[in-house]
Amino acid sequence: MTGSGTTRATGCCRTWRGVLIGQVRASDLVFRYGGEEFLILLAEVDHVKACFVAGKVRHRIEASVTPLTDEQSVGVTASIGVAAHDGHPDFRHLVDRAEKALCQAKAAGRNCTVLAES
């Protein structure tokens, strides 16, 4: 196998970015947030719709295949933390809640979606 872990991770992130962008509306925003994490800002949706979108994204990532070389590819899964805006004026509060939910999703065995507590 050729390529470093970083090269493979970059290839996976490119695949994920395409999947993410394909699952959200033009009014939504997709950001790379850290090494292999993404942040999706869904405008004007409640937690029910956000969890529905997260589920679609997770299933599409799981169904995607990322080529590593001409002969090898890898499948990946996603753990997703969802947080709905609770009126707090600082966006970091919302991101922190989503990150905590992400950690819970990873601790729950990965490849799942967890909604942050309000």
From TrEMBL:
Protein name listed in UniProt: diguanylate cyclase
Record-linked InterPro entries: Diguanylate_Cyclase, GGDEF_dom, Nucleotide_cyclase, Rev_trsase/Diguanyl_cyclase
GO molecular function terms listed in the Swiss-Prot or TrEMBL record: diguanylate cyclase activity
Residues spanning the membrane: none
Pfam families, A to Z: GGDEF
NCBIfam families, A to Z: GGDEF (TIGR00254)
Main enzyme class: transferase
GO biological process annotation, one example: cell adhesion involved in single-species biofilm formation
Enzyme Commission number: 2.7.7.65
A single GO cellular-component term on record: plasma membrane
Domain named GGDEF: residues: 1-118
Matches recorded under PROSITE patterns: GGDEF
Cross-referenced SMART domains: GGDEF (SM00267)
Catalytic activity entry: 2 GTP = 3',3'-c-di-GMP + 2 diphosphate
Organism: Parazoarcus communis
